[in-house]
UniProtKB/TrEMBL annotation:
It is a multi-pass membrane protein. It holds the Pfam family MFS_1. This is MFS transporter. Residues 1-17 have a biased composition (Gly residues). The keyword Transmembrane helix applies. It is found in: Cell membrane. Coiled coil: none annotated. The keyword Transmembrane helix applies. Residues 37-408 form the Major facilitator superfamily (MFS) profile domain. InterPro entries: MFS (IPR011701), MFS_dom (IPR020846), MFS_trans_sf (IPR036259), Tet-R_TetA/multi-R_MdtG-like (IPR001958), YfmO-like (IPR053200). It comes from Herbiconiux moechotypicola. It comes from the Bacteria. PANTHER family: MULTIDRUG EFFLUX PROTEIN YFMO. The chain crosses the membrane at residues 37-55, 75-96, 103-122, 134-154, 161-185, 191-209, 230-253, 265-284, 296-314, 320-339, 360-380, 386-403.
Length: 430
């Protein structure tokens, strides 16, 4: 991908072959020499992104322990995503008024409280409700963390982005594994573990991060809503809505037909998380350097639909379904980054405004998918939800093709390193 910054890799991870000598040396020499506040935020980022796959390994255990149906258990994702998406509409309004430090602390405090409460719950309805509060905290934290690290890191934006994306990838990968390890002891374990780690992150940021001396320009409350009237943003948001149906059927429904224990599911989705992290950071920029963004979207959506059809065909094969999960993770990593990067290039709106408006719409797809998948499985067959997911992904591809005239300019927009990091962040902040 050609960038205005002149970088070759886009994200700055890996060999600094695309940088001039001075930039590459600066990033390499300063990456580990960061202020304590940066390390505190980076640590909290790892824990926050662990939450993406943390619950997957314990879904069957929760259903069994709390005598809940599969559909009820799937609402753990629905409540989390609905509140996350809704909160995204207001995070920029809030952070530009109370400051980044307070926004981070409020987000972390909410995660600590609601993750602990979820672990102490006695009914699945309580866990569903507390997961909603967790989603609010995660939205506040994730929406502010990247800007905080970039503003405070030494060695410039390149070093900050490398550090941030390393934290993101680490969190996505180890979340399911930790969920499996703690979940093999008790389904409550992952919730207690997240609460404890986030409490450490809260204390570290409270102690090590200084209060801001200058307040940013306040963002109007109406900004994200007006953003959705832009044709390019509307096409991409609706595309993402249908794509996310496929995404979350794969993520939230698959643990049930797999039939593995918590550790088995943890290892499966550890592989999924590794695939998501690797392709979002490395493969997505490589592809968009060689093909227009719109073509990447069409190709990857088609491949994802085929992978979901394969998951339906192999629903009775543990090895086959695990393979589909990991391959799906690789495709999801590319889609998340390229789709959100396209959103940022689609309009001249401030990136936080465009990202929050887009995220609010796409999370609707993620929220409705898990319970629909469970209901379809009960009414038809275990394979039917995967075919439904494949159909929804094809609808997403069709929308992006029919709306090509509105989004054609994204193929010619150049993005900076920071924009790509924001794209990966928005893509993975589930």
């Amino acid at each position: 991908m050609a960038h205005g910054t002149g970088t070759g890799t886009g994200t700055g991870i890996g060999p600094a072959t695309g940088h001039g000598p001075a930039t590459g040396q600066s990033a390499g020499s300063s990456i580990l020499r960061q202020p304590k506040a940066v390390w505190a935020v980076a640590f909290a980022c790892v824990i926050a992104f662990m939450g993406i796959g943390l619950v997957d390994p314990i879904l069957p255990a929760i259903a069994e322990s709390l005598h809940a149906s599969q559909t009820q258990t799937s609402l753990l994702f629905t409540s989390y995503l609905l509140i996350t998406g809704f909160a995204m509409l207001f995070t920029s309004w809030l952070s530009t008024r109370i400051g980044a430090r307070k926004t981070l602390l409020v987000g972390l405090a909410l995660i600590v409280v609601f993750a602990l409460a979820a672990g102490l719950s006695g009914t699945v309805e309580e866990v569903i409700g507390f997961r909603a509060g967790w989603g609010l905290g995660n939205a506040l934290f994730i929406s502010t963390a990247l800007a905080t690290i970039v503003g405070a890191a030494s060695g410039g934006a390149s070093s900050a982005i490398i550090l941030y994306e390393a934290a993101l990838g680490l969190g996505i990968a180890i979340g399911p594994l930790l969920g499996g390890l703690l979940g093999s002891i008790s389904w409550r374990g992952p919730f207690f573990g997240t609460s404890a780690l986030m409490a450490i992150g809260f204390i570290a940021i409270f102690v090590l991060m200084k209060k801001e001396t200058q307040q940013p320009t306040p963002t109007p409350l109406s900004a994200p809503f007006k953003a959705l009237t832009r044709p390019a943003l509307a096409v991409l948001a609706v595309t993402a809505l249908f794509y996310n149906v496929g995404f979350f059927i794969l993520l939230a429904y698959t643990p049930f037909p797999l039939g593995l224990d918590a550790m088995g599911l943890g290892l499966t989705f550890f592989g999924w998380g590794i695939a998501v992290a690797v392709t979002s950071v490395w493969l997505a920029p490589w592809l968009t350097a060689r093909m227009p963004r719109t073509r990447v979207l069409w190709v990857v959506l088609a491949l994802l639909a085929l992978d979901l059809v394969a998951a339906g065909l192999f629903v009775s094969s543990t090895a086959g379904l695990i393979t589909c999960v990991v391959v799906g993770g690789a495709l999801l990593g590319v889609m998340n980054t390229v789709l959100t990067e396209s959103v940022m290039a689609a309009t001249d709106l401030p990136r936080p405004v465009a990202s929050s408006a887009y995220s609010a719409v796409r999370f609707i797809g993620g929220a409705v998918a898990p319970p629909i998948a469970s209901l379809v499985a009960a009414a038809v067959t275990d394979a039917a939800p995967f075919y439904l997911a494949a159909g929804s992904v094809l609808v997403a591809a069709l929308i992006s093709v029919l709306g090509h005239r509105a989004i054609a300019h994204i193929d010619h927009e150049e993005e900076s390193e920071l924009a790509e990091a924001e794209a990966i962040t928005a893509g993975e902040s589930l």
